[in-house]
Amino acid sequence: MHSSNKYVFDRNLRLPDGGFLEDCHPYPMPTRMYEEDPDALFESGMPENLMWKDHLALTIGHDTQGLTFHRHNAAWNTVVFGAKRWILYDAERIANITRLKTMTRDIRNPIQLDTANWIRKLYNKDDRKHEIRNYGHDCVQRSGEMMYVPRGWAHMVLNIGDTVAVVSERGLDGVN
């Protein structure tokens, strides 16, 4: 039986032809710019690794795959198939890097645990569960639901079964 630990992120998701997304306007940037004038986007001089940062991305992963605690700009995630467990922790509460490390890692063990093992081994230890449930969120996102992650919030994601999602970092105009 083949088993792969690959978690696919494809940021070069092409907009489908045939008007499938007509009701989704306005598109996030640079998707909107790409639709209006693809040449201008590529001629803008923006490095390609940044160009697609705000673009739609497709993620595909199997059961118990996910991402450990991380932070970035505001983002949204829509599950197309499957489900995801999210654990999010307020950016204001973790402004102190020591507090962040204490909450997200086993400081006695230098090896960072994957998401599933963090939940199994660390979630119920110390004050983590209390902190997250009082100053963050622990929830399940199901197919057809959208999750918005505010800028700077530490979060981890765990797939529940095989999961497919569409995501974009800062795809919302005016959101920091």
Write the layout of secondary structure elements.
Layout: E1 8-10, H1 31-36, H2 38-43, H3 48-51, E2 57-61, E3 66-70, E4 75-89, H4 97-104, H5 115-121, H6 128-135, E5 136-142, E6 146-149, E7 154-169
Antiparallel strand pairs: 1-2, 2-7, 3-7, 4-5, 4-6, 4-7
What does the model show?
There is one protein chain. The chain has 176 residues and is α+β, with helices and mostly antiparallel strands. Helix content is 22%, strand content 31%. The protein has six helices and seven strands; from the N terminus they run βαααβββαααβββ. The protein has helices at residues 31-36, 38-43, 48-51, 97-104, 115-121, 128-135, and strands at 8-10, 57-61, 66-70, 75-89, 136-142, 146-149, 154-169. Strands 1, 2, 3, 4, 5, 6 and 7 form a seven-stranded antiparallel β-sheet that branches. The mean pLDDT is 76.
Short note summarizing the structure:
The chain is 22% helix and 31% strand.
Number of strands: 7
Distance between the termini: 45 Å
Structural class assignment: alpha+beta
| Global mean pLDDT | 76
Instruction: Return the string of H and E elements.
Output: EHHHEEEHHHEEE
- The rounded Rg comes to 18 Å
Task: Provide the helix percentage.
Answer: 10-25%
The percent range for strand residues is 25-35%
**Cα shape:** globular
Largest sheet: 7 strands, antiparallel
Number of helices: 6
The low-pLDDT segments are none
